[in-house]
Amino acid sequence: MELSQSCEGQIKESSEPEVIKILFLGGIGGGKSSTINTIVGHTECETGDTFIVGKQITEKTQIVTYKADRVLQFIDTPDIEELHQDKRFNELRRQGFHAVILVIPVKEHVRNMKMLSQLGKLLGSDCLKFLIVLLTFKENLKDSSLEEFIEILELDLKNFIKRCPKRIVEISNSDLSLEHSRSQREFFIKALEEVLQETKGDVITKPSRIQNRVKCCGYLLMNLLLFVFKLFVLLSFLLYLFINYYGDIFLFIADA
Hints:
By secondary structure, the protein is α/β, with parallel strands linked by helices. It has 8 helices and 6 strands, in the order H-E-H-E-E-H-E-H-E-H-H-E-H-H.
């Protein structure tokens, strides 16, 4: 009897749908909350516009669950520069995320975004394979192309986006109709599936202190070896010049 109960428990556990945790990161007013609402097809996250610099609508990390073949947990977050102080985010980060969505708004006034340094601090340098670049406010492009918008971004951010050509998703949150939400959701899910296939179910968590120290030591060692190599080349070159110009003098003194 005990054995059958144990097997029954295992069947119940295995029949539970897989939960995919999707982290949305970005700055104030980038459209993280609006995008989640568009994908799920109704309003779950509070949204709005603010004219006060530094004021954000989403003040705490929240989870929106969308059930399909799998359970998708969309994790809406405050401004990326203040996220390290969010207690709930830090708890979720320890559990890990299956995909990371970097939200960049297509707005002319949004230029100076320090997202990459914050992204590295939060998730480490290995987050690229988990990453999808999501460009919101697609309607603002009008007659301009996506390539033209990318060209006006900061150099580091522009080069970073160009490294993810197959992971760029454009989205417009201005239309909340069911048909529009369905089409936007399909584009997003397609990019998400590519990430999940590549990562094979792995999750990304906060880099441990040991990992950070190993990477730091590796970086220092690489630079030290590079310095030694350059010093060796310089000394070899100086020795060559010395022998070339003063070698005859020493030979003359030796013969004398």
